[in-house]
Amino acid sequence: MGSQSKKRVSVHDIQLAFKQNQLTSRQLLEFYLKQIHRLNPILKGVIEVNPEALHLADKADSERNSKAPGSLSGLHGIPILLKDNIATKDKLNTTAGSYALLGSVVPKDAGVVTKLRKAGAIIMGKASLSEWAQFRSESVTNGWSGRGGQGKNPSVLSADPCGSSSGSAISVAANLVAVSLGSETDGSIVCPSSSNSVVGIKPTIGLTSRAGVVPISPRQDTLGPICKTVSDAVYVLDEIVDLDYNDKATIEASKHIPHGGYKQFSEALMIEFKQALNKHLKELVASPVRTLADAIAFNKKFSDLEKIKEYGQNLFLEAQATNGSSNKEKAALQYMARLTRDGFVKLMIEYNLDALVTPFLRPYGVGVNSVLAIGGFPGITVPAGYDNKGVPFGICFGGLKGSEPKLIEISYGFEQATKIRKPPSFKP
């Protein structure tokens, strides 16, 4: 299989090539590593490559040759990039893009990583992101982190790659990998997917486990796939959804998982971030920082290293100032619950709608992500076009909790009818 054909293949195509002995996992991984070596110095989509990746590829090839159970389907033998806030208990770091967590030791794999490993996926490395998932400072540029540098949009290098799952979207768009995983609290999957002309699925809150992920808000955080096509994203979604007792939200949300899988079709955040992050840092086996206060002190100490004089950390400071019980914070939570009940939910039920459809042409599409975020609702972004400068934009299909099957049908239909996506041009 030549490099040109690799640029267009889907997960299904890769699995077919595996079965027909036209491609090995090692060959596929080596192709992606060459792509990273060639393009990542410019794009900054990958923050770290797994030193054990080639060994894992050889292991996958061996399992396939021996026809081990599960080795001829799904994500087996396929490399995947994880956003650098998703814990892996291996030789990779998990830092949320910050030097403050470099060298920290996680207690175990994140829940979704456990499922990916069980499916036979190759953890190729960590994707860059907006540092601390865009929750360090409002002045931080989308796609920038201390460790990773400034991520670039492969279609137009000067264009906004959006965040915080910027590296996950950049890497898929530039064919540094076919499959990646991102996380979203408010727009962090759907926006970078739109900006980089790829497909992103933001699942219903709790449909995918957040255990082992550097948190912002347990009420809004969710993990989902970023890929080139709806079909590929669904492949990944099928592998990572399930009940996980390490994340209680999955107990309720697991009832939304359809039998047979899916292939068949801001201010209140401050207190939540502080509490959730402090809990996460406390559970690390080893870490240079143990609390949000430690991270703030680290950033002050190493201001030159992290360009903190340019970007600051106002969100960190505001979160640290919360105490978890103020009437203002409680009122904000009640207000968001009322907005959800009397706004989006009421609209969808009264008009018997399958989906809310919104173009994600910035700045006009910004906002729909917040509607979905505060209510824990799912959304799927699909490439929809390019502006007069060649910058991509997407269209977002959002629905009520558990409506992923219908959203997949609609977004897949739109994708197949338009087929608008094209390879990035790397314009200045």
Automatic annotation (TrEMBL):
<dbReference type="InterPro" id="IPR023631">
    <property type="entry name" value="Amidase_dom"/>
</dbReference>
<dbReference type="InterPro" id="IPR036928">
    <property type="entry name" value="AS_sf"/>
</dbReference>
<feature type="domain" description="Amidase">
    <location>
        <begin position="28"/>
        <end position="257"/>
    </location>
</feature>
<dbReference type="Pfam" id="PF01425">
    <property type="entry name" value="Amidase"/>
</dbReference>
<protein>
    <recommendedName>
        <fullName>Amidase domain-containing protein</fullName>
    </recommendedName>
</protein>
<feature type="region of interest" description="Disordered">
    <location>
        <begin position="141"/>
        <end position="160"/>
    </location>
</feature>
